[in-house]
Design brief:
This protein is an alpha/beta fold and 738 residues long. The protein has helices at residues 14-23, 25-45, 80-90, 93-103, 122-125, 137-148, 169-227, 238-273, 281-284, 287-309, 315-403, 431-457, 472-479, 494-512, 514-520, 531-536, 546-556, 569-584, 599-604, 613-618, 645-650, 654-665, 682-685, 701-713; strands at residues 10-12, 50-58, 149-153, 159-166, 414-418, 461-463, 543-544, 560-564, 589-593, 628-629, 636-638, 668-672, 691-695, 720-722. It has an eight-stranded mixed beta sheet with strand order 7-14-13-8-12-9-11-10, with helices on both faces. Strands 3-4-2-5 form a four-stranded antiparallel beta sheet. The longest helix is centred in the middle third of the chain and has 89 residues, at 315-403. The protein is flat.
C-alpha cells in the first residue's frame, strides 16, 4: 500500500474514504440514474400479474337431531394438523383438475404455454428435456396452475387462504372462488357418500344383532330357572338377600345381648358393694322402686319431725325406724328382681344368637352353591349385555346416518368467509419500488467498490498514532524529569521488559531535545545531593511524569492499578490528576478512595458524605449508588464512604469481587491507598497481576531510592514512580482547578 509502510501500523482514514467517494460523485450519480432508467423501462415492459384471495374457515358443521352427537360418531378433531391437512387437499391434483375442466383452462395460453407456442423448445430438440406435449393436457395445466397457486393456513386461526396470480384479473378472482366451491362440494359429497354406505352396511348388521340379543337373553332366563337363581326386588339373588338379612339380625341380637349383660353386671356390682341404687338407670326407671323411694322419703321426714319432740327411745321413733328398714329391704329385693330380669333377658338374647348363627351357617352353604352357579349366569349376562349394547350403538348410528342421506342435511365442515374480488391494480411489477431499490442498490454498491479500492490502494489508510512519542505534553514533561536507563537481566519477566522499553523510548525522545534543553536552561547544582546521593541515583529506576504514567497505562491497556502516596495528600492529589488525564484521553476510569484522609473524595465528589467503599463493604448500599461522577472531568469516583471503618473491614473479602466488577466495566481502575505500607498491599496487587504506582510529587532521587528499596524488600519489583509538579501544572479548562 502506498499510503503506509509495510512494517507500520495503520488506521482507517474516514476523511480520505469520503473524499474518494466525493471525487467520483458524477460517475456515481450517472450510473445510478442509468440503472434507475433501465429498471423503470424493464419493469414497465413486464406483463402485469394480478392476485386475489379467497378465505375458508374450517369448522364442524354437523347438525345432530338431538343436543348431543350419538355415541360412536367419528367427528373430526379440528386441531392444527387437521387444518394443514385441509390445506393440502385444496392443492390436490383432483381438485385442480376439476377446476381446470370446469373453467376450460386448457384453452388458455397462460396455463398451457407449450400447446400455444409457435417456436419449438431448443432443449427439446437437443434431447436435453422431455417434450411437454407428450404429457396429457391436464398434467400440463396442473403444473402451471400450482406455480401460480398459493394455499396456506392463516397463523393463529382455522382459516385457510387461497391465493392465485394471473395475467387476467377476472381469472385471478374467479379461480380461487371456484376452488372454494369445488372444495365444499367435495367435502359435502364425501360426507353424503359416507352416510349412504353406513346405512347400507348397518341394515343387515342390525337384523343379525337383534336375533343374537334375543337368543342370549333366552339363555340367561333358562339358566336362571334351572339353577334356581331367583332374584329379589333389589336385583340380587335370593340366597344373597337372605344371607344379608340374617347377618343384620345377628348383629342386632348380639348387640342386645351385650347390652343386657352389661346392665345386669352393673346392678350386680352395686348389690355386692352395698352402694345406693339411685344412680342405676334400670333401678331408677322401675315404678315399684319409685313408689318405695317416695315412702322412704316420707318415713325419713316423719323420723326427723319426731326426733325434735321425742326422745330416741320413744316407741313412735322405734316404729318409724322399723318401717324405714322394711322399706329399704323392699327396695333391695326389688333391685334383685330387676337383676334377675336383666340376666334372663341376656340369656334369651344368647339363645337367639345361637339360633341365628345356625341359620347363617346354613344360608352360607346355600349361598356358596348359588355363587358357583352364578358364575355361568354372569357369563351369559355379560354376553347378552354386550350384544345389547352393540345393537343400541348400531341403531343410533343407523338413525343418524339415515337422517343425513338428504344432501341438504350434510354441510361441509368449512365455509367461505371471504370471497375473492377482481383486483384493480397488479401486484407485480411495482414499477416505482423496483426503480427505487435498483437505484439505491447501484448507489450503495458503487460507493462500497470505491471504498474497497481506496483501502486496497492505501489511500484510505493512515499511520497509527503512537500515543506516547507524539504527545507534546509528554515530551516536554519528560524533558524536565531525570530518566535513567534500565538494565534488563536475562531472567526479567514480560512486565519488566515493557517498562524498560517504555523508559528507553522516553530517553530517545529526550536525546532529540537535549541540545535545546541544555542551552536554554542554566546548570544548577543541588546542594542537597552529595556524593552518596549521586550514587543512589544510579539505581535502575526512573521517576516518570504524570503523562508518562498515563501513556504507559494506556499503552499496556492495564485495567487495574494500585496507587500509594507515601507523602500523604500530595500523592493522592497526583493520583486524582492522573485519573483526569486518563479520562481526557478518552478512556473510562474510576478512582476507589481507600485513603484514611478521604483526599480523593474531597477533590472529586460533590460532597464528602456520599456513600462509598465502606458502605459497599458493609452491605448497606447497592453497588450502583456508590459510583459518582467527578465534578471536573468525565472520570468517576467511589468515595471513602460514611459507614464504620471497623465494620467495613469485616467484609474485606468482598473487595476482590468489587474490583473485578469494576475492571470489567472500566478501562482503568485506580485504587488510591494513601500512606499504606508495602506489606498491606498483597490483597490489592493480586500477586503482581496489577500495576503498582508510587505517587511521589516533587520527591528527591534519594527519597525515591529509599522507598524503592523498601518495596523491593517487600516483594514488589520495579513499581512505577510518578513524580509530578502539582503546584506548577497549568489549568486546562478547569481540570486542575482542584
Amino acid at each position: 500500500m502506498s499510503g503506509v509502510s509495510g512494517n507500520q501500523d495503520a488506521d482507517i482514514d474516514i476523511g480520505q474514504l469520503f473524499a474518494a467517494v466525493w471525487e467520483r460523485r458524477k460517475a456515481i450519480l450517472t450510473t445510478t440514474a442509468i440503472a434507475a432508467a433501465v429498471a423503470f423501462v424493464g419493469s414497465s415492459l413486464m406483463t402485469p400479474e394480478y392476485k386475489a384471495e379467497t378465505r375458508i374457515l374450517i369448522e364442524a358443521r354437523d347438525t345432530h337431531m338431538s343436543g348431543e352427537a350419538p355415541q360412536g360418531t367419528n367427528d373430526q378433531v379440528l386441531d392444527q394438523y387437521n387444518i394443514v391437512s385441509q390445506a393440502q387437499i385444496l392443492q390436490s391434483a383432483d381438485l385442480i383438475r376439476q377446476v381446470a375442466r370446469d373453467m376450460k383452462l386448457f384453452d388458455l395460453k397462460e396455463f398451457d404455454p407449450e400447446a400455444h407456442s409457435w417456436l419449438p423448445d431448443p432443449l427439446v430438440l437437443l434431447g436435453l428435456k422431455q417434450n411437454p406435449m407428450d404429457l396429457p393436457p391436464e398434467d400440463r395445466v396442473i403444473k402451471a396452475f400450482r406455480e401460480k397457486l398459493q394455499v396456506y393456513p392463516v397463523e393463529g386461526s382455522r382459516v385457510i387462504a387461497i391465493e392465485l396470480a394471473s395475467e387476467d384479473p377476472k381469472l385471478a378472482a374467479g379461480i380461487p372462488n371456484k376452488m372454494a366451491d369445488v372444495y365444499l362440494s367435495m367435502q359435502s359429497g364425501a360426507k353424503l357418500d359416507t352416510h349412504t354406505e353406513t346405512t347400507r352396511w348397518l341394515e343387515p348388521e342390525i337384523a343379525s344383532l337383534r336375533e343374537k340379543v334375543r337368543e342370549a337373553e333366552k339363555r340367561v332366563a333358562d339358566y336362571r330357572t334351572n339353577a334356581g337363581l331367583f332374584q329379589s326386588s333389589e336385583n340380587t339373588s335370593f340366597s344373597s338377600q337372605q344371607l344379608n338379612d340374617i347377618s343384620q339380625e345377628l348383629a342386632r341380637v348380639r348387640g342386645e345381648r351385650a347390652n343386657a349383660e352389661a346392665r345386669a353386671e352393673n346392678v350386680r356390682t352395686a348389690l355386692k358393694a352395698g352402694a345406693g341404687f339411685d344412680t342405676l338407670g334400670d333401678v331408677v326407671s322401675s315404678s315399684v322402686i319409685q313408689r318405695l323411694k317416695e315412702t322412704e322419703a316420707n318415713i325419713q321426714a316423719d323420723i326427723s319431725q319426731a326426733q325434735i319432740a321425742l326422745m330416741d327411745g320413744h316407741p313412735r321413733l322405734k316404729g318409724l325406724r322399723a318401717q324405714l328398714a322394711g322399706i329399704r329391704q323392699q327396695i333391695e329385693a326389688e333391685t334383685r328382681k330387676i337383676l334377675a330380669s336383666l340376666e334372663s333377658e341376656a340369656t334369651v338374647a344368647k339363645l337367639r344368637e345361637q339360633q341365628l348363627v345356625q341359620q347363617l351357617n346354613g344360608v352360607k352353604a346355600d349361598s356358596a352353591r348359588a355363587g358357583e352357579e352364578e358364575v355361568g349366569l354372569r357369563a351369559l349376562e355379560r354376553e347378552a349385555a354386550a350384544q345389547r349394547q352393540l345393537l343400541e350403538t348400531y341403531l343410533a348410528r343407523y338413525r343418524e346416518a339415515a337422517s343425513r342421506v338428504d344432501p341438504n342435511s350434510t354441510p361441509a365442515d368449512a365455509r367461505v368467509v371471504s370471497t375473492a374480488i377482481e383486483p384493480v391494480e397488479p401486484y407485480f411489477p411495482k414499477i416505482l419500488p423496483i426503480t427505487i431499490v435498483v437505484a439505491l442498490a447501484t448507489l450503495i454498491l458503487y460507493c462500497i467498490g470505491i471504498i474497497v479500492l481506496a483501502l486496497f490502494t492505501g489511500r484510505g489508510l493512515r499511520p497509527a498514532d503512537d500515543g506516547t512519542l507524539d504527545h507534546p505534553t509528554a515530551s516536554r514533561q519528560s524533558a524536565r524529569q531525570p530518566v535513567l536507563a534500565h538494565h534488563v537481566d536475562a531472567d526479567e519477566d514480560e512486565d519488566d521488559v515493557h517498562r524498560n522499553e517504555f523508559a528507553a523510548s522516553a530517553e530517545r525522545d529526550l536525546s532529540a531535545l537535549a541540545g535545546a534543553s541544555v542551552q536554554d536552561q542554566p546548570e544548577q547544582d543541588d546542594p542537597s545531593l552529595d556524593d552518596e546521593g549521586a550514587e543512589e541515583l544510579a539505581v535502575p529506576h526512573a521517576a516518570l511524569s504524570l503523562e508518562a504514567v498515563r501513556d504507559y497505562l494506556l499503552r499496556r491497556e492495564a485495567p487495574f492499578a494500585v496507587a500509594v502516596s507515601p507523602t500523604g495528600d500530595e500523592g493522592s492529589t497526583a493520583t486524582v490528576l492522573l485519573a483526569r488525564e486518563i479520562s481526557e484521553a478518552g478512556r473510562s476510569v474510576v478512582v476507589v478512595d481507600m485513603t484514611g484522609t478521604a483526599c480523593p473524595t474531597r477533590l472529586m465528589a460533590e460532597s464528602a458524605s456520599l456513600p462509598g467503599v465502606t458502605d459497599l463493604l458493609c452491605g448497606t448500599t447497592p453497588f450502583g449508588e456508590t459510583i459518582h461522577p467527578d465534578r471536573l472531568s468525565d472520570a468517576h469516583i467511589i468515595p471513602q464512604g460514611t459507614a464504620d471503618a471497623e465494620q467495613a473491614m469485616r467484609g474485606a473479602d468482598r473487595l476482590t469481587m468489587v474490583l473485578d466488577a469494576l475492571s470489567g466495566a472500566y478501562d482503568v481502575v485506580l485504587v488510591e491507598c494513601g500512606q499504606a505500607e508495602a506489606t498491606g498491599l498483597k490483597r490489592l496487587t493480586r500477586d503482581g497481576a496489577s500495576e503498582l504506582i508510587l505517587s511521589l510529587p516533587q520527591a528527591s532521587p534519594a527519597e525515591i531510592a529509599e522507598l524503592l528499596e523498601d518495596y523491593e524488600a517487600a516483594g514488589y519489583r520495579q513499581p512505577l514512580v510518578m513524580s509530578a509538579d502539582i503546584a506548577g501544572r497549568p489549568s486546562r479548562s478547569g481540570r486542575y482547578a482542584a
